[in-house]
Specification:
Largest sheet: 7 strands, mixed
Number of helices: 3
Mean pLDDT: 91
Distance between the termini: 40 Å
Number of strands: 12
Strand content: 35-45%
Low-confidence stretches: none
């Protein structure tokens, strides 16, 4: 069923703000023409990196307060000091793994929660990396770095050990680009 018009914002109220996010309530006219409200969250864009070292994928095993222990690809927020998402991806990879340099390929950006936030996650593949001389960021003290084959990463996705949606999307894009039946 087609709507006669799209969403229209009539007003905006900031409900909450912190160092990490802001919550808004918009007064809207819905596509059905009725008045309503729409609550949403503003957070920075994020990055995820599929870092390949000698054919293995670098996977971060880390405990997250809301979801518990999980595997995911290195990544994090695009900070205001980052000049662009690539700079953020390179910084996050260096902070979490110690690896730097290499050949970087963009796999685009996805909106993982489009009903909750306009934030995007920029997906990158990095190869031919070198281990730098700087230690990983102390804020990542609970992070355990693993090197796994693409086959093992794909299996971890299927088994639910690697549930991060943007990590899954990037791993599947790389696996399907190499060998669709991994």
């Amino acid at each position: 069923m087609e709507s006669s018009h799209a969403w229209a914002r009539r007003g905006r109220h900031q409900v909450y703000t912190s160092e990490h996010l802001a919550v808004f309530r918009d007064e809207v006219i819905r596509p059905d023409g009725m008045d309503g409200t729409y609550d949403w969250v503003a957070v920075p864009d994020m990055v995820r990196v599929a870092a390949l070292v000698d054919g293995d994928l670098l996977v971060a095993e880390q405990f997250h307060y809301l979801t518990g222990l999980m595997w995911q690809l290195p990544g994090g927020s695009v900070d205001p000091s980052d000049r662009d998402p690539l700079a953020a991806a390179q910084r996050e990879l260096r902070e979490e793994t110690g690896y730097k340099g290499g050949l970087w390929t963009s796999y685009g950006a996805v909106n993982p929660l489009p009903g909750l936030t306009p934030a995007r996650v920029h997906l990158w593949r990095a190869e031919h990396l070198v281990l730098g001389d700087a230690a990983p960021d102390p804020a990542e003290a609970d992070l355990r770095l693993r090197r796994v084959s693409l086959r093992t990463a794909a299996q971890a996705v299927r088994e639910g050990r690697l549930p991060c949606a943007t990590s899954v999307a990037l791993i599947r894009a790389i696996v399907l680009g190499r060998d669709g039946d991994l």
